[in-house]
Structure formats: C-alpha cells, structure tokens
Amino acid sequence: MPSRTARAPSAAGTDLDGGVHERKEKGGRRTARATLSGALESAAGRRSVFSRLAKATALGAAHPLAFLVALLVVLGWALSGPLFGFSDTWQLVINTATTVITFLMVFLIQSTQNRDTQALQIKLDELIRVTQNADTALLDLEELEESELQRIQGAYEELAAQARLEGRGGRRGNGSDSPAARLSLPGKP
C-alpha cells in the first residue's frame, strides 16, 4: 500500500502522491505549488471499517426512527416492571444496556465529529489560501493556544465594532486595519 505521507517538495513542487506540478505566476515566473489532487483521488473510497461503522452509526442515531426505537424500548421496559416485580435485575437490565450503548456511542460519534471538523477546517483553509488579500496567517488557528485565539478574536471584534460605529458594512481585511497588522502576526510584514 502506498504511503499517505507528504513528500518534501522539490524545486518544481510535488503533491501528496509524488506527482510533480508547476504553476506559472504573473510575469512568467515559475513557482512550486503543492496540490492535493493525487491524495484526494487515492483516498476516495478507502475508508477503514471503523470509519464506515462510525459514520453509519452517527447517521443512524441521528435518524428520527432511532429515537422512536429507543422510546419503544424504554416504554417496553417500563411496562414490563409489574411483570418482574420491579426487581433489582429488572432495573439492572436498563441501566446496563443504556450505559454500554452510551459508552460505545461516545467514541463512534466523536470519531465522526472529529473527521467532519477536520474536513471542514481543510476546506476553510483552502478558501483562505485562494482568496486574494486574505490573511493567510489565519490558516492554522486551531493550533494556537486559547489565549492567542482570544487575542485574535478580540481584534476581529474591534474591527466589527469600529465598522458598526462608522456605519459601514465592513471592508476587506487588508492593509493597516487587518487583525494581522494590529497583532503583528507571523507571516505579515
């Protein structure tokens, strides 16, 4: 099975599957450009059994029919109480079943949520990367400490408050009013 790790870029640039790509910039100058097309093609359709199970479980648990089934099980259990004399064993059955199901669902749903969040983050990073005048220092915010995130959020809140006070709908995030310029984030002059 081929390696899924990225190879170091050469002068021409490589994508994640080792293919070489070049892009001409304005003025005819050639620069390296990392692409993901090969990685996306090779990863499409190759998911582990756990990933497929986690996704199917998350989708199934979110369906209204799953709630109805759970409700019917609880009602059936409650109605069977008099039949079993509301014994300790009768109570233990529902307690054990709900605990085991909850325990397993936590891991399955968390796995699905983490994968969805990571995919969303990659999509947002790509939108930031391709947007002209975007502040690319924002690409990996999820890697920063909480205090740093709060500082950057504060800069954006200041921009929003200033825009409301000036009665304008806002403007592009470039120049001296960008949070990167205000905070002197790495990657910005």
Provide the descriptors you would attach to this structure in a database record.
189 residues; elongated; mainly alpha; 3 domains; two-stranded antiparallel sheet; 6 helices
SSE arrangement:
Blueprint: E1 22-24, E2 30-32, H1 37-43, H2 49-61, H3 64-79, H4 88-130, H5 146-165, H6 179-183
Count of helical segments?
6
User: Beta-strand level of the residues, as a percent range?
Assistant: under 5%
Span between N and C termini? Answer: 43 Å
What does the main sheet amount to? Answer: 2 strands, antiparallel
Number of domains: 3
Q: What are the segments in which pLDDT stays under 50 over at least 5 consecutive residues? A: 1-34
Which percent bin holds the helix content? 55-70%
Order of helices and strands: EEHHHHHH
Overview of the structural elements:
With 189 residues, the protein is mostly helical. The protein has 3 domains: 46 residues, no CATH class; 82 residues; 50 residues. The protein is 55% helix and 3% strand. It has 6 helices and 2 strands, in the order ββαααααα. It has a two-stranded antiparallel ribbon. A hairpin with a 5-residue loop joins strand 1 and strand 2. Helix 2 crosses helix 4. The longest helix is centred in the middle third of the chain and has 43 residues. The N terminus is likely disordered.
What's the gist of this structure?
By secondary structure, the chain is mainly alpha-helical.
